[in-house]
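Appendix B.2, paired examples.
Example (i):
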Amino acid sequence: MPLDFSGQNLRGRSFKGQNLEGANFSDADIRGADFSGASLKDACLSGARAGLQYYLVFFIIVLSFFLSVIIGFISVIIGSYVDVDVTGITVFVLLSVFAFVTSRRSLETALWVQAVFGSVCLAVFVTTILTQLVTSTLTLDKALRLVSNFALAEAGSLAAAMVWILACATTLAANLAMTKRRFISDLVSSVLSVVGISCGCLIGTVAVVRANGDVKASSWAAFGAEVVVLISICRGWQILAQDDKFALIQKIAVAIAATKGTNFRRADLTNVNFKGATLKNTDFRNSILTRTCFQQAKILDHIRDEKTYLQNPQVRHLLVTGQGQNQNFDHQDLRGVNLKEANLTDASFIGADLSQANLQDADLSRAKLVQTQLDGTDFTGATLTGAYIEDWNITTDTKFDGVRCEYVYMRLPTKENPDPLRKPDNNKEVFADGEFGDFIQPIFDTLDLYHNQSVDPRAIAISFKQLAEKHPDAELEIVAMEKRGQDKFLLRAKTAATADKSQLNAEYFDTYNQIKGLPEREIKLLLAEKDNQIRRLENMVMTALERPSFYSNIQVEEVGTMTNNPGGFSVGGSVGGNVNNVQGDKNRAVQGDNNQAVLGDNNQVTQQNQVGATSGEALTKEDIVKLLAQLETLIQGAELPADTKEEVVEDLSATKNATDKEEPNKQRALERLTSVADTLEKTSKTVESGQKIWTTAKPIIIKVAAWLGAASGSHLLHLLGL
């Protein structure tokens, strides 16, 4: 039976590492309690009060006042050890630079600028002193004293800035730890800071006068201290108002205030209910926040939230208020967020990760769910009418029970097409109750690899092959290739139900981007290590790019995986020119009109419309080898770029070797001949002499292609204009 701690005083209690699944902590006082490493799955902490215990609040307030006193004292001491001519320039200028840069940029930048500027000033000052020494206008003792005083003033100013940062952070921590009434906390913390600095200045001035009786130095010291006081007063309110320029101080302050506060570090908070809870000064670092409810939670800004989605202020506000309409959450990591009943109309989640999220009864009308990761997302009772679902990644674990949806769009809108690919297609029709789930079911188990720029067929082929080899249990099977507009390409693969699509997607694109950046020679070496499937998939991708409808929306019925089908990529369904159900080991389908592929090993396919069949039969293997040698001689004597010539000759040599065997490897030869034609065709468009070579080479390539059995509709014959 779940434990019941509702309404109890649990301040300072340790629940470290305990199993508290389903426990009831509603309205309990858990200030200072330690839940680190505990399992709190399905626990209820609604209305609970987290934070610091009273004695720790008092300690932080005292520490804040003490550090403020130190600021004033240090300021006076710095000035007392510096000559009047140095003090007025060094302390005042450096502190002024620090204050100016802080107000314009950020605290981190100000510290860096102050250190660099101070070093430059010191170098200039030392150079000036050395010049005066050389010209005998200054004694050595005087020069050493001036340099040491200048360096001391510079170091002291930097130290004062660092102490000021720590004091401000502690003051802010005291503010965060005090009463929930913001005005009183702000007032008390500011008064403590100013009074503390003033006391420090007074103590420092008295100490300096008693030590050496130097009233003039003490006056300058007091002046420097008052500058610090003014900076503290002006900047203090900005810090308390959470100005982004003081993010460093805010981060330190939250860390101080959360120390010994309620600790949920590394705790499992899956499905925990924090509705209406007060969560200031709480440590959530590295905790599991899957579907954790933060609705109406109080003071969620004052927590330690490293490595969680709570780091994002926009997300924190959404979780607390449930209001995200018209907001942009593109490419954000929202994995596991609880947005139950949230208003997300017209919100944009393009490329975002909403896997394992709770979107029950949420209103996602007209939301952009383009390329959104939705593995295990719960849409039960949600409204999706008018949503844009282009290339969203849903799985069998995505729940659509009771979804309210009249229609969706399969593409993002444009000016030319404001209603792109509406489903149902008839604008006068809408989905009936429960019909949307049936509509979306067929594409559950697919991995959608969307390429939105610089499509590289070779990189696609290599990356997908490596992904399939690395994850054989994923059972990757290509089911569709589709060109999307200019320079965009979708490769869709069926996967096993248990496959982690988010991981597969990330690994694929890591490999793809890495291969795209390799030099041409390294890509060739990589291709040489792989089998024929790489070349085949590359050709398929290129064909799909050049003929957008060629491999669009292919449905797989019974196909083998890439790793267990040594004969090549098996694709079921209608592909291109009516070649149906190509399956099994070593089958070869030739595309043409009304061809039928026969299942089984080493089966032959009746071919129609095969280019050059008659002329191809008149040639012998020796004739083809001679034609290839003739073409190789032609290329070697041509005026082509050296790297292009080397590439073509290498491919021709491989074609000739594959042909000149006792049993010619025609498939291998066709692949390398296609590479030759592809290179020459591209060169003809960029090199003046390339057009002439291409024109001369095409008749030879056509004869060889016919003998090798090039299929109608293949990429090679498309290059040849056939």
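Example (ii):
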Amino acid sequence: MIPSIKEIGSFVNKKGIQSQRSIEGKITVININNYNYSGIHIEDFDNSKIKFYLYKEGASKGNNPTPFCPLTEPKKTFNKNVNWLKECGKLGNKKLDFDILNIVEVLNKQKETIIEDISQKIKDIKIKSNFLTVKINDKFLGEYEFFKYAFQELEREKLRKSANKGVCSVCNETDKEVSGKVNVFRFYTTDKPGFITGGFKEEYAWKNYPVCEDCKSNLEEGRKFLESNLNFKFYGLSYLLIPQLLIGREDVLNEIIEILSDTNKKIYLKERIKKKITNDENEILEFLSEENDVVTFNFLFLQTQQSAERILLFIEDVLPSRLRKIFETKDYVDRLFQNDVEKGFNFGNIRTFFSKSSEEKRENDLNKYFLEIVDSVFKGKTIEFSFLVKFFMVKIRNELIKETQESKFNFIVKDAMMSLIFFEKLGIMNFKEEVSMSQSIFEEIFTKYGKSLSVPAKRGIFLLGALTQLLLEKQWSERKSKPFIKKLKGLKMDERDIKSLLPEVQNKLEEYDAFDLGKQKLAKEIARYFLEAGENWRMSVDEINFYFACGMNLKNEIAEIIYKKEEI
């Protein structure tokens, strides 16, 4: 991963591509002209001038001196600006027609006035991003060559505190000055016990992860480019998409980077991408799936906690051919459910069951399981149905209870069925097949919805779900209520309950004078499958009730067959 980010940063540096993410905000400017304080003014943040601002994202955290930083408390932010200029003064006055320390003196003398002026100026600003900096003689600090030099030199000084001669862990070159203070990813810190070798002393931090200055620069630019162009939303989470070359085909990486950094090409890219498997409108996985297998993609899911970052999931080496397989499988599921799902199948259908363990939860507490499934999809790892069905049934049962109150029962069951077929077609979920089974008038449906319905017990349960739904709808049309739903025990029925349910459904339909030839045909098929299944089905309660719910959901397709497509 790190060499790939360095390679991206190296390309970005060579081509002079702007890797900093676009920022919208305001800049509060302290004006110093001819050693006099001449007031505060506010201007819009201009991304084309970012090199003049000497802005480095994250550099102002804590009490670090900096020439340009987010304006939080006027006094604290003012001190960061002044302290940085003071540090510059120690470097001398190379090619400047003014004395920096005199500027610092002016700022300190007018400190109270300046802070008060800043407070007054910003009180009506509603925009979140507001930055503070100093202009000297109507120029931003980065418009002076000396301050650009000072910006880099002060950064180097910080690194030297934990630097030494050694081997760079990124480029593997020897006898280079390397440092451990490389915060491309904030996975560890050098100022707390437990992260530094050599007796917790900061001067030995370089031993943990030695990186030379060139690699550090490329890594920083690579991270900025990823954040700006390859940072995507993922159902309450986010990931960085990191391309990595397998063989020497730099043109592939160049093409991806150039498209993502060129506005006109970005517009073209957005117009040509039609299919998405996530909720990010900027997702580009379909475009990347068209590449040859000379490049792989890494998915880095990060969580930021205060000033640190934690890896939630790192998916390595996903080939374009794997992405193609995923999109082909998505297309198959979309065709299967084309009349039911408007936007087609995506990871959102899976997220339905893996966000919160209960509706009362404030935070998504099932991210771990969701990410495990995402990993399986991209890497081709097997998923156990017994694991999935537990989560399917939690959601399905909750919706059944709301059956008379705008329930999403049918949509939730459909989400589960689509997910199941997606996993099966993708080859990451297997079902045992029964070899000898007599043909059925419902064979087309069983084939359509995959191998999950390939044993007699499952087929019988599925069809019983459809028959029960026909009864519930008859009750609703007659009484505007569904009293029989109590017999379903909140979808926690076991094998014995299911077997005893069939005669109860038949009797109730007869009471409504609704046990017509079509339903008799259906009941006969159910009884036959139960007989073929015999005793001890070896199915969990969740599994039994899942197939029952699927049958309820597909009642219309069953009805079309038993009534030969006549109206019911």
